[in-house]
Predict the 3D structure of the following.
Amino acid sequence: MITNNTICLLPGDGIGLEVIPIAETIIDVLDIELSTKTYPIGWECFQNTGKALPQNTLDAISKTGIALFGATSSPKAFVQGYTSPIIDLRQKLDLYANLRPSKSLPIPSSMPNVDLVVVRENTEGLYIRKEYWKNKTTAIAERQISFHKCEQIAKIAAKLAKQRKGHLTIGHKSNVLSLSDGFFLETVTNTVKNYAPELIINDQLIDSLAHDLIIKPDTYDVIVTPNMYGDIISDVTSALTGGLGIAPSANIGDQCVIYEPVHGSAPNISGKNIANPTATILSISMMFKDLGLHLAANQLDKALYSTLQEGIGTPDIGGNSTTSKMIDAIMEKIKH
Ligand code: NAI
Ligand code: MG
């Protein structure tokens, strides 16, 4: 039975199948009144059923309004009938903001003093996927920046900055794309000034922002960008604090939220029991906080941090533990 206390689990492909079931263990060990139900999605699902995002899966998420997505594999070249289901979910459910926090972790590969959030517009930009051939040797991709989406993303970024350090950076490329990125910059700036005049607002060209994020990440708080820039710089910010294996996210809409580790299906390590569960655990912790389950979120964060502090981690962060060993260690800490 689906209720509002049911979290839809969408493991997908590859390591998604290894990290998403952790949610059931965590809910069980923390003894929280949430249930889960698992739904098919992704490339294997497409190969079996002809659909990467079955209607039943979409209906279930719409109904409960909350899901945890793993990752799906997407072919590099065009395949008739296949589109990336997470991009479809973001657009169909109007999950207009993608929040990707990056915070220092107690592991050797993490820089100290990083505590920032990339707020990426999640439904338009170049990812509207309007691509076509102009002629046989020239491919075109259209890019969409709309007032409504700029306003929505500006408000969510401003709200977050208000709760945090009060500093907002708008990443753009309006020196080249003066019409579309110029419109993004102007609309986001005006909206934030009206909505939260107390915030410090800066804007920065996205290439220079990528550079400074590596040189002086501690100077940033909330960063808001159009879709593809945010996709790219949030992989950069994940690298600052330990890489893709530790980076969580939330896809936010007015009716639905889908929590998601930033990484993909990682075919190079899937099936080996070495996928880092940290990105998923931190995504689950974000979910608990949004559901008002602060005690559970804190218990989970604390157990994760002390496990990492003890040097228990998967190979991507320099450890020699398996996925299951790391989860067992975290669960043991919660139990005691
Ligand atoms: P990826 O994120 O799957 O892997 C990139 C690198 O990071 C690999 O070396 C991988 O081993 C490592 N890595 C990722 N997550 C890890 C974890 N939890 N623990 C340890 N190491 C981890 O990105 P890649 O290789 O570009 O794409 C692989 C597939 O995933 C492709 O089919 C791609 O389309 C898909 N993908 C799906 C996404 C999604 O569903 N949201 C996002 C990104 C990629
Ligand atoms: Mg990405």
Summary: The two ends are 32 Å apart (CA to CA). The CA atoms of residues 273 and 324 lie 7 Å apart. The pocket of NAI (ligand 1) is lined by residues 15, 71-74, 86, 244-245, 263-269, 275-276, 279, 314, 316 (CB under 6 Å). DSSP finds twelve helices and twelve strands in the chain.
